[in-house]
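Hi R.,

As promised on Friday, here is the backbone we talked about, encoded as structure tokens. Could you run it through your design pipeline when you get a chance and send me back a sequence?
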């Protein structure tokens, strides 16, 4: 709320649902955050993770010792040097940090989440045309996954699909492009270039990448996740 109001920006739409968590050594025996009572916890200065960590430990009446750094690489060095018992950050950042150390399997991300951290594009307040374009490009990549449109099959589906939603999305009919004042193939070109949302996730964050982050809440709504494309009609 405060970032949206005070920085002159507008949150366009959420494309990644995250939450604050904690990473510990896999051999520490810690299974729940409540077991970190009295622990030394690495945090990055100036982030909401500082506040979320302090709020949670205060709420359960547990002491902890914060060790604050300016940069992620400083935190990683501190973890490897055993200066901290845990690292508190958004789960995606924890996974990225884990992927950068020599032996990632030595670190475990605890399953609990203690905040809502919605990631998405921001645009300058008052730039409504650009907001529309960014919102609907993002939505188009989510919609493409819902409809089974991929980088590989987009061309064929544009030519042959009888599904009205597919035809609108890929510009076989022109109303969406006209509404945005863009080429009818605007979404088709995007999917051909980068793939649908699922393809993007799989190659950047998914289980087969060094980050190895399961989709979790970023799964499609039809599969139990939160990802839901606004109707494109």
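Update: got your reply. Pasting your designed sequence below so it's all in one thread:
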């Amino acid at each position: 709320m405060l970032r949206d109001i005070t920085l002159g920006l507008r949150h366009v739409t959420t494309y990644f649902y995250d939450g604050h968590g904690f990473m510990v050594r896999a051999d520490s025996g810690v299974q729940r955050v409540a077991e970190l009572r009295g622990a030394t916890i690495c945090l990055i200065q100036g982030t909401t993770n500082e506040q979320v960590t302090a709020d949670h430990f205060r709420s359960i009446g547990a002491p902890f010792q914060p060790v604050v750094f300016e940069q992620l690489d400083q935190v990683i060095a501190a973890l490897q040097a055993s200066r901290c018992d845990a690292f508190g950050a958004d789960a995606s950042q924890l996974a990225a940090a884990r992927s950068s150390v020599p032996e990632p399997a030595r670190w475990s991300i605890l399953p609990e989440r203690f905040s809502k951290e919605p990631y998405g594009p921001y645009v300058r307040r008052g730039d409504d045309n650009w907001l529309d374009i960014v919102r609907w490009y993002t939505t188009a990549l989510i919609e493409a996954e819902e409809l089974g449109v991929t980088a590989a099959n987009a061309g064929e589906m544009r030519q042959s699909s009888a599904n009205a939603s597919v035809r609108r999305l890929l510009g076989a009919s022109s109303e969406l492009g006209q509404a945005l004042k863009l080429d009818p193939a605007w979404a088709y070109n995007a999917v051909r270039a980068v793939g649908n949302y699922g393809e993007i996730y799989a190659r950047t964050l998914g289980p087969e990448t060094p980050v190895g982050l399961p989709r979790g809440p970023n799964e499609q709504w039809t599969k139990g996740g939160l990802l839901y494309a606004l109707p494109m009609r």
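One thing I noticed while checking it: The mean pLDDT is 94.

Thanks again,
M.
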